Amino acid sequence: MATKYWVSTGSSDYSLAANWSTTSGGAGGAGEPASSDIAVFDSNSTNDCDFPARTEVVAGLELRSGYTGTVDNPNPNAFIVTSNEITVASGATLSLSNSSAVLQPRAGISGAGTISGNGRLSFDIYTDSTLDIGPSTFDIEIVINTRSQVVTINLKDGTIFNSDLSVTSSNGTYTLVSDGDLQIGANFSINSSTTSWSKGTGTITLAPPAATTKTIDFNGETIEDLVIDGAGTAELTGAFTTDSLTCTAGTLDVNLQNITVVGDMTVAAGCSVIE
């Protein structure tokens, strides 16, 4: 496994050999990363990168601290990461404009950067795994698929989901671990009887945007403190138990679901609750 560094002198194409070096800030000409390599973007070249119109496979993808550009896949082809994480540091953007990124089998995603686009970020898990997600801002749909494995997903403190997140599992044992404060501004669903939620000590904030209705299904699980603080409507489509419920702004549509609040329930003047 080798590490290849992006050294382009301007916005350019991922596939050009001249844009890659074996050292950070070094001479170009090393060739694009192979399927067993790690592709690194750092402060020594902050220029944007576009993927070519074909499927690209690497072992890992790192947008490190100091990289402030955008790595974009504008084509309807998958970008596949086979073993290491995708890292998107604060200030960096990974854009899947019209495509998907597939992480397999143990690859997670870390960093406080932004993952955006109208494509899809898919986790295709087929071995027993522990994955970390976040604390990124996800402006892209996320789908987590498992088969017959034991899988733990750590949702890191500060993670923001602004696009849909769905969890599906076939015959596996799946645990979502909340590792701090989470913000959900999109549809969120746990669609499996074999999936459980391991609550942490943080807060889950539902923040649907104005003039939207987002559906929330915790699949009967016990979750930490829940806050409703958006301009739109959070519609519940499944039962759950929460430590406390605070409605600060927006609308909470309980939708006739069975909700158990162990502690305090507070509804501010700026929030509406529909039973």
Count the E strands: 32
Biggest sheet strand line-up: 3-1-4-7-10-13-15-17-20-23
Largest sheet descriptor: 10 strands, mixed
Quaternary assembly? single chain
Mean pLDDT: 89
Q: What level of helicity do the residues show?
A: under 10%
Shape: elongated
Estimated share of beta-strand residues:
over 45%
Distance between the termini: 56 Å
Number of helices: 0
Radius of gyration: 20 Å
Structural class: mainly beta
Low-confidence runs: none
Describe this structure in words.
With 275 residues, the protein is an all-beta fold. The chain is 0% helix and 53% strand. It has no helices and 32 strands. The protein has a 10-stranded mixed β-sheet, with no helix packed on it. It has an 8-stranded parallel barrel with strand order 16-18-21-24-27-25-22-19. The chain has a 3-stranded parallel β-sheet with strand order 26-28-30, with no helix packed on it.
Features:
single chain; about 280 residues; mainly beta; 8-stranded parallel barrel; 32 strands
Could you outline the blueprint of secondary structure elements for this entry?
Blueprint: E1 3-6, E2 12-13, E3 20-21, E4 38-41, E5 49-50, E6 56-58, E7 60-63, E8 70-72, E9 78-81, E10 86-88, E11 93-95, E12 100-103, E13 109-110, E14 114-125, E15 129-134, E16 137-146, E17 150-156, E18 159-161, E19 165-169, E20 173-179, E21 182-184, E22 188-190, E23 195-198, E24 203-206, E25 213-217, E26 222-223, E27 225-236, E28 240-242, E29 245-253, E30 259-261, E31 265-267, E32 271-274
Parallel strand pairs: 1-4, 2-5, 4-7, 5-8, 6-9, 7-10, 8-11, 9-12, 10-13, 11-14, 12-14, 13-15, 14-16, 15-17, 16-18, 16-19, 17-20, 18-21, 19-22, 20-23, 21-24, 22-25, 24-27, 25-27, 26-28, 27-29, 28-30, 29-31, 29-32
Antiparallel strand pairs: 1-3
